[in-house]
Amino acid sequence: MVGLRASYFTHRAVLAGGFCVLAFSLAVAGRSSLDRTFFCIAGGVGFAMILLAWRFPWTRLPSGAPVVIAIAADAVIALLRQSVGGPPTDYLPLTILPILWVGLNLGLLEVGIVVSSTMLTFTLPVELVGPPMYPADPARSYLLRTIVAAIVGLSAYWITGSLRAEARRADRNAALLSQLVDTQNAIATTDFELDSVLAAVVEEARVLTGAAAAAVAFPEVEGLVCRARAGNAPPLGFVFPLDSSLSGTAFATQEPVLCLDSEVDPRANPSISRDTYARAIVVVPLLHNGRAMGVLSVSSPTPGALGERDVMALSLLGSMIGTALVRAELIDKLASQAVTDDLTGLPNRRGWHEHLSLALKRAQRNDEPLSVILLDLDDFKEVNDRYGHAAGDRVLREVARRWKAALRDSDIIGRIGGDEFGVILEHAGVLAVADVVARLDRVGEPASIGVATWDGVEDGGSLVARADADMYRHKRLRSAVVA
């Protein structure tokens, strides 16, 4: 429809001009005499029709307004018939053109209007002028031919109606494809961190469907747990039961679920829907290699606000999102492994120093104290030599567990060497460090301990070097006492 109308508005003046050329050519062809008055009036109407078609601001008027051009065409025909002295049949085929034109470009109402205009063009002179110029007998023929012309116009309208519908579907599909590409690009260009990908997924899904909320949930022991949200979606950590929710159904069947109204849909969980203000809901599984990894849901508080188009859009995204999440989860896991000690689960040397760098920035920004503690297990080499490395590994895991339990949740302990550990204490000056050292001593693991409190200007390397020097000083003292 859009294409047809664009073509019509582009060429309307040319079409009107061509019609006039054809109509006036029929009037003068083979005729020695004309009624100049009616011929000139017809010329004026034709010129006005062309001028209107060319310059009039039709886009500011209702879409059916251009039907006046077709009515003007019928007026030109009526005036030219009068100028040549009555009812020659040359103009009968010409009357089909305005009807066909309206059928191709305007609506059903406009087709009816121009058909009525055409009928009046041939029947009104019979009533107003009458014989001998317009005899009564041909009027029936004119009426029959007008009906034929009407059939042509309606056929054109119905045929182009299907083309209009196809054009609308094509426009909608093109718009959807464009949105999907934009969504894919937005997800693909996010940070590789899993949380960033999830945040992009829910926001883009909400925008794509026009929903009020979107959420991603992953399976855990208690059910599908909300891990990302946008809009007025359920809070993070919200659990969708696997056996009594739309999300659970989509996850179990690996098929999209459309709920037009959760208040009447027996598959929906009414309490969840009321708690989350969700009436219209679409849930699609996030698939990767034929396996459901989780679900993506969008919802609206308005019943029927989401439909099959949204199901199709989110389904097309499902596999792509599943792959993106696998990628992000893998990268997230690799990044975690790069800074985590496999044996103890604590930050490794790299991870611990990254924590220290961030802690120093916070301490400098907030003008707060910060201290580090280094711990080195005594006689650990003898454990390995006497009992083997497996026994040594068990000792390290147990020591790490006990020391971590003795610290505050905000303290960061990491394994920064073979049998060496480091502790970062934020908001901790000399007195607070002494208390922590006492708690670590009470654990009962024999270790040399070194302490350093940040002086307000030094970098992390200098701070750790002072703690290391203090630790080796204590180790030498311990060795001297034993000797």
Overview of the molecule:
The chain has 483 residues and is α+β, with helices and mostly antiparallel strands. It folds into 3 domains: 2-167; 194-336, GAF domain (Beta-Lactamase, 2-Layer Sandwich); 349-482, Reverse transcriptase/Diguanylate cyclase domain (Alpha-Beta Plaits). It is built from 16 helices and 10 strands. The protein has helices spanning 2-28, 36-55, 67-83, 91-94, 96-105, 108-128, 137-188, 194-209, 246-253, 270-276, 308-338, 349-366, 380-387, 389-406, 430-442, 460-482, and strands spanning 213-220, 223-231, 239-240, 257-259, 280-288, 291-300, 370-377, 412-415, 420-426, 447-453. The chain has a 6-stranded antiparallel beta sheet, with helices on both faces. The chain has a 4-stranded antiparallel beta sheet with strand order 8-9-7-10, with helices on both faces. The longest helix is centred in the middle third of the chain and has 52 residues, at 137-188.
Describe the structure using short key phrases.
Beta-Lactamase, 6-stranded antiparallel β-sheet, alpha+beta, 10 strands, Alpha-Beta Plaits, 483 residues, 61% helix
Span between termini: 99 Å
Tally of helical runs: 16
Percent of residues in helices comes to 55-70%
Question: Total strand count, please?
Answer: 10
Mean pLDDT: 81
Low-confidence sequence ranges: 1-10
What does the main sheet amount to? 6 strands, antiparallel
Number of domains: 3
Supply the helix-strand structural class: alpha+beta
Topology record:
Layout: H1 2-28, H2 36-55, H3 67-83, H4 91-94, H5 96-105, H6 108-128, H7 137-188, H8 194-209, E1 213-220, E2 223-231, E3 239-240, H9 246-253, E4 257-259, H10 270-276, E5 280-288, E6 291-300, H11 308-338, H12 349-366, E7 370-377, H13 380-387, H14 389-406, E8 412-415, E9 420-426, H15 430-442, E10 447-453, H16 460-482
Antiparallel strand pairs: 1-2, 1-6, 2-3, 4-5, 5-6, 7-9, 7-10, 8-9
Helix pairs in contact: 1-2, 1-3, 2-3, 3-5, 3-6, 5-6, 5-7, 6-7, 7-8, 7-11, 8-11, 13-14
